[in-house]
Write a structure and sequence with these properties.
Blueprint: H1 3-12, H2 16-31, H3 35-47, H4 71-74, H5 86-96
Length: 103
């Protein structure tokens, strides 16, 4: 059996919820540059004697995977504010937030 046949067999025995998550992940993988492609691009740049400078590989915008987010997921962004409008944005949050409702 090849990989495609094994995947098809697994698809047939999976729930719709798992298939939806799998589809999101597959779409994400298709938009993300592969490591071997990035390495190849970088090694080509290093060997290019006609250029006096190296250009960075272009960063592609990835499609976000929409799932249940947790506060822990946001910790990777802690302390990474960029820009000079932090105080203004913080004030907007204070003015527009509402009381949390827990059931």
């Amino acid at each position: 059996m090849n990989i495609k046949q094994i995947l098809l067999q697994e698809i047939e025995s999976s729930s719709d919820v798992l298939l939806a998550e799998t589809l999101d992940f597959l779409r994400f993988l298709k938009t993300k540059p592969r490591i071997d492609q990035i390495s190849l691009d970088l090694s080509t740049e290093k060997n290019d004697d006609t250029s006096n400078h190296q250009t960075k590989p272009e960063i592609q915008e990835a499609t976000p995977i929409l799932r249940g987010s947790k506060a822990e997921d946001l910790l990777k962004f802690a302390g990474t504010w960029q820009g000079d409008d932090f105080e203004e944005c913080l004030q907007l949050v204070y003015e527009t937030r509402s009381q949390a409702e827990f059931s």
